[in-house]
Amino acid sequence: MLSTTASFQLISRDLQRSLDTTATQPLVARESEYYLANISAVKSVDDFLADDRLFSFAMKAFGLEEMTYAKAYMRKVLEEGIDNQDSFANSITDVRFREFAEAFNFERYGETATAFERTQSGTVEMYVRQTLEESAGADNQGVRLALYFERKVGEIENAFDILGDRALLQVVRTALGLSEQISSLDVDKQAELINERLDLETLSDPRELDRFLNRFTTLWELENPTQPPTVPNVLATRPTVYGIAPDLLLNLASLNRGGR
Question: Which CATH architecture has domain 4-124?
């Protein structure tokens, strides 16, 4: 089995091919086709919530699959929209709900809310990416976290954006060697710790981002080995070989030389 770093790089270095392969999977292709054929007929929040298949597709696309059952909650998100600073979606810390309300903005656009590219092909693209990340996570959660960070990094403006997203925080905390105990500190102190160790502006450079995620996946692998430790086989005629995977050794060597 490939290490976390190798698995992530296999997907990330030819991301479009990985996405194309995911898009052609029978279930993904079938659900995407249904969504594109029917979403433009949705003219209201009631229409949207009434079609379980469409609604479930959209919720998964925005990473909200676990909230699909909570239709009363999501109705409030959709009906109040985001234009009012005091709207329900704007009061929720989790930015996914604001992103969902902005994409399906019935409060602002009424019957034409689903006519935009972001609600049609844009949502399908997000669904495919979400499926790819979930599939990677089924084998290795570290790979899913790295892919998620790679996707969201362009939206990170400050340390508070990281602190408001558990997945982003887990990546940063692992890569920077920060203890989980920092979550018990005042939020301003947490932000200060992150800023002391990470220059967010450097992550806009693909090479620096690659180094950062290489560090994360390497350290994740050390904490969560892909393969369990080998148990000595006293009956084997050949000695059991122990050690760390070659790609992990190379990554560790890079870190020891000051690589990020």
Answer: Orthogonal Bundle (1.10)
Residue 181 pLDDT > 90, yes or no?
no
Cβ within 8 Å of residue 78, ≥6 positions away: 45, 48, 100, 101, 104, 106, 107
pLDDT digits (tens, 9 = 90+) for 8-19: 999 999 999 999
Query: pLDDT, tens digit, for every residue of 22-35?
Result: 999 999 999 999 99
Is residue 233 within 8 Å of 242, Cβ to Cβ?
Answer: no
Question: Where is pLDDT greater, at 228 or 148?
Answer: 148
Q: What token pair was written down for 124?
A: 């399908």
Judged against a pLDDT cut of 50, whether residue 80 lies above it is answered with yes
**Domain limits, the chain:** 4-124, 157-225+244-256
d(CA 5, CA 247): 8
By the 8 A CB rule, do 164 and 92 touch?
Answer: no
Burial annotation 15-33 (CB, 10 A radius, 16+ → b, else e): eeebbeebbeeeebeebbe
**What is the mean pLDDT of the segment spanning 36-58?**
97
Burial class (CB in 10 A: 0-12, 13-18, 19+), 252: middle
